[in-house]
Amino acid sequence: MCSLHVEEEAHLAAMGGNGDGTRTPSPRPRSHEANIALFDICWEDVLLPHMSTYLSLKDLFNLRCCSQTARRFAEASLEKRQELNLSGNNTSNIGLAFKVVARCCRRLEVLHLACCKWLTDDLLLPLLTNNKHRLCAVNLNECVNITALSLQPIIVECKDLRILKLSKCQWLTTGAVDALTLHQSKLVEFDISHCGAIGERCLIIFFRKLNKLTVLSLAHTPSVTDQVLIQIGNYCRELEHINLMGCVAISDYGVHALTVHCLSLRTLLIRRCPRVTEHSLAPLRQRRLYIDRPWQDNAHNAYNLNDFYPSDFLVYYALTKTCTRLQSLMVQRCPLVTERVLAPLRGRVHLDRPSMGYNLQPSQNHRLFLQV
């Protein structure tokens, strides 16, 4: 922790202890009052709160090179700094400067380190350790040389975390997302675009806890499917902006779930999603949402909702969550609906498809549902 020089402490103590209102002379030897220096002004009451806030990080490091007193002032300013933005800064010797920042900063609330190719776990962990209890926004987009180890203090210790951006972080794994599910439920903005190592199942579980999300980016994430969008629609009711560009596995079914449940939605980025058509986008256009895909009058060539084959997941969801009084189910010519979801229904729901196996005892049928 940065401390003041002995002379400065004596000066501040003398000024604070003088009760008659007269000015206490500075402990610095000077021949005339006109020789008052900048650092003779009270640091805690004037310089740090009212001047250092206007100095950029570059200004502080330039000031730090002037003298020993200037160095102590610069480090005291870093200690009280609440925001650090080094996004895209890949200049030479930036790693040495970052070590100083990591040692001095103690009150950071916002941390932007996107596209920092030089950033490693050894550099980042000390900074996170010193500021983990105050951080509310962390941006690590395209930080390719760190690992999931750096996320541990963020996931476990940052109880006030609201914004987390991890775009193009190929080191983000299913295990890290599972840890986020356990410890972070207050996120309002989340970005995992271009993260190909995450599984579909962990995303489904993850979004069940994030009922406060307003901004979500899942662009070019291959594990984002209709099932994931259904969970987002069911649990993230406050969602306002979502980026689904390049999610080729989603279709009109998933977008329809967002249309029905996310009534606060204002922005939908849906380019390069070939299975999403105007059948699901038209209702959103009527609500005057911003959609990055222009309207196309090609309905005769578009997919129809009835053309999409229902899957085991959709049948299971409809039977267990929505249609509680279902008595008859017609699923012939539905190749994606298998005996995994039908076997537990036989005997209590009329099915038009003969049994294809799974001769299980009634007490074991629930195991098939768990696999869906």
UniProtKB/TrEMBL annotation:
GO biological process: SCF-dependent proteasomal ubiquitin-dependent protein catabolic process
Cellular component, GO, one term: SCF ubiquitin ligase complex
Pfam families associated with the record: DUF7885
InterPro entries: FBXL15_LRR, Leu-rich_rpt_Cys-con_subtyp, LRR_dom_sf
SUPFAM superfamilies: RNI-like
Entry coiled-coil feature ranges: none
Name the UniProt record assigns to this protein: Blast:F-box/LRR-repeat protein 15
